[in-house]
Design a protein that fits this description.
Layout lengths: L9 H11 L12 E4 L6 E5 L4 H18 L4 H17 L1 H12 L3 H21 L7 E2 L6 E9 L3 E4 L7 H13 L3 E4 L5 H18 L8 E3 L4 H9 L5 E5 L2 H13 L3 E5 L4 E5 L5 H13 L9 E7 H17 L18 H16 L3 E3 L18 E4 L15 E7 L2 H9 L3 E2 L1 E5 L3 H8 L8 E4 L11 E2 L2 E2 L6 E2 L8 E9 L15
Parallel strand pairs: 5-6, 5-8, 6-7, 8-9, 10-11, 10-16, 11-14, 13-14, 16-17
Antiparallel strand pairs: 1-2, 3-4, 4-21, 12-13, 15-19, 18-20
Helix pairs in contact: 1-4, 2-8, 3-5, 3-6, 3-7, 4-5, 4-7, 5-6, 10-11
The protein binds 2-aminohexanedioic acid.
């Protein structure tokens, strides 16, 4: 295990990575925004911030780019995304490592995040030849009715620290093939991976050539006021925002007031049901990754577990053992599965929730700080498993930390009721071998989430499906399936190739 005496060359390694990834030195040295690595807690860079005036200028450039880019044929636009995917493949190791150092993810998850970017690029390249509209039967003779999909305009992207680059790519890869420029405001906690991604994308643009207008992809570094520029600017007809439900509550009314589209990916309070017939060994592994992976800092993290009375004693003590033994530590060390929390606020939020649990008389396994890694400003915790007497208290809200609340249930109806009794509606799972239960869970009367899985935890979705959720999760859908439609406008076209002018609904208007 690493300890405080391990000499840290982290800032040097970060600078080397940024250099290899093509980020100019003045973008990350001497700027006004300090960047801290959650791995050691030390400062690793000082990034130059975008002013609100510069942000507005970037939106202006992006809007001008839209006027050109929309006329480039979609399959040709797809070629740019193909090149982006190629550049990401070339830089996967370095960008993945930077995700580890800046966001604290363990290496396989850092690399996995870049793989998710590559996957969505591949998906979008295919999509660039499949932006299909329907041909619709018309009620009028010698007429044709069809729909066409057109580019919409500048797409604003506000992303969070926990998926510092993949969320941009879900939006950017689709937006680009759909004919839309992208202006991105990453989390102020993870600007370095954004700068690196931007540099990679600029290389793809340079290879693509003159068809790509200036301002097609832009990056705004800063705090909330910079995000607000994107929210308020009428030249941004669609905004994808990932973050807390509180953030969504601020953003959504402003977008609605100017009739912009909102793609909101907000909080999750994801649950799993472990039914009497569950394969408990598989459930144990599925739960462990979903609840402790990414140190509980995915929006899809498993936070609530409903275990049937008949299997509770066979499963929960084993789970408690895994919680006690899982390797928590510096993500640069081999074997680490649980890295650091992003910052002190995350640690304090976790301790507060655990305190409330103790007051409720819950049994709390783990949750304590793991010392001796990095500086005092690095926050490592043993994941917490909390056996609750009832589905109450902090289990009803999202705490962005590795806490898994476990509640015993007796009837399937009761489990479904508790499952749906929270504000968020992102992801969900059931572990069962009973097909009736599985189907009920996925039915209209089952899980109310945007994602409902069987014998898989709620996290770690592939990009081929539409990603997002209901209720306080915000209703947005990104990535696969037909999520692309949010980035385009639909026109319904009716063409008359007759010499008559029959009106719909049999209306006559003889002049
Ligand atoms: C997020 O946590 O913001 O399904 C996104 C997953 C990942 C994406 C999570 N593919 O867990």
């Amino acid at each position: 295990m690493p300890n405080a005496s391990t000499p840290s060359s982290l800032p040097t390694e970060v600078a080397e990575l940024l250099q290899r990834l093509g980020v100019p030195r003045d973008a990350y040295t001497g700027g006004s925004l300090p960047v801290r690595s959650p791995v050691t807690g030390e400062q690793i860079a000082a990034v130059a911030e975008t002013s609100t005036a510069q942000a507005a200028e970037a939106i202006g450039r992006a809007h001008a780019a839209y006027l050109t880019w929309r006329n480039v044929p979609a399959p040709r636009r797809g070629e740019l995304v193909r090149l982006l995917g190629e550049e990401l493949r070339l830089h996967k190791a370095d960008l993945g490592r930077l995700v580890t150092l800046e966001a604290g993810k363990v290496p396989s998850e850092g690399a996995g995040e870049v793989q998710e970017m590559i996957d969505i690029c591949d998906f979008a390249v295919g999509l660039s030849r499949q932006l299909y509209g329907l041909t619709i039967a018309t009620e009028r003779a010698e007429h044709r009715m069809m729909e066409t999909w057109h580019p919409l305009g500048v797409v604003g992207v506000i992303s969070a620290f926990n998926f510092p680059v993949a969320v941009w790519s879900w939006n950017a890869a689709l937006a680009l093939v759909c004919g839309d420029p992208v202006v991105w405001k990453p989390s102020e906690k993870t600007p370095l991976t954004a700068l690196a991604t931007h540099a990679i994308a600029q290389r793809a643009i340079a290879r693509f050539g003159a068809d790509a207008p200036e301002g097609l992809l832009d990056l705004l570094i800063g705090q909330r006021d910079i995000g607000e520029v994107l929210v308020d600017d009428h030249r941004v007809p669609v905004l994808s925002a990932t973050g807390s439900t509180a953030m969504g509550r601020q953003v959504a009314p402003k977008l609605a007031a100017r009739f912009a589209r909102a793609i909101l990916e907000l909080g999750g309070n994801n649950a799993a049901i472990v039914a009497p017939s569950a394969d408990l060994d598989l459930a144990l592994r599925g739960i462990a990754f979903a609840a402790m992976g990414t140190a509980g800092q995915r929006c899809t993290t498993l936070r609530r577990l409903f275990v049937h009375d008949s299997v509770y004693d066979a499963l929960v003590p084993k789970l408690a053992k895994v919680y006690a033994s899982v390797q928590v530590g510096d993500p640069r060390e081999a074997g680490t599965l649980v890295g650091p929390l992003i910052d002190r606020a995350a640690f304090d939020g976790m301790q507060k929730a655990l305190g409330e649990c103790r007051e409720l008389g819950a049994t709390v396994h783990g949750g304590q700080r793991v010392d001796g890694i990095g500086t005092q400003d690095a926050y490592y915790v043993r994941p917490a498993l909390v056996e609750l007497k009832s589905h109450a208290g902090p289990a009803l809200r999202e705490t962005f930390a590795p806490i898994l609340y476990v509640v015993r249930y007796a009837s399937f109806d009761e489990a479904i009721e508790w499952h749906n009794a929270v504000g968020a509606g992102l992801s969900s799972s059931i572990f069962t071998l009973d097909m009736r239960e599985a189907e009920r869970f996925m039915s209209a009367a089952g899980s109310d989430c945007g994602i409902a899985n069987v014998n898989i935890g709620p996290s770690g979705a592939e990009i081929g499906g539409a990603f997002g959720g209901e209720k306080e999760t915000g209703g947005g859908r990104e990535a696969g399936s037909d999520a692309w439609k949010a980035y385009m406008r639909r026109a319904t076209n009716t063409i008359n190739y007759s010499t008559a002018l029959p009106l719909a609904q049999g209306v006559t208007f003889d002049i």
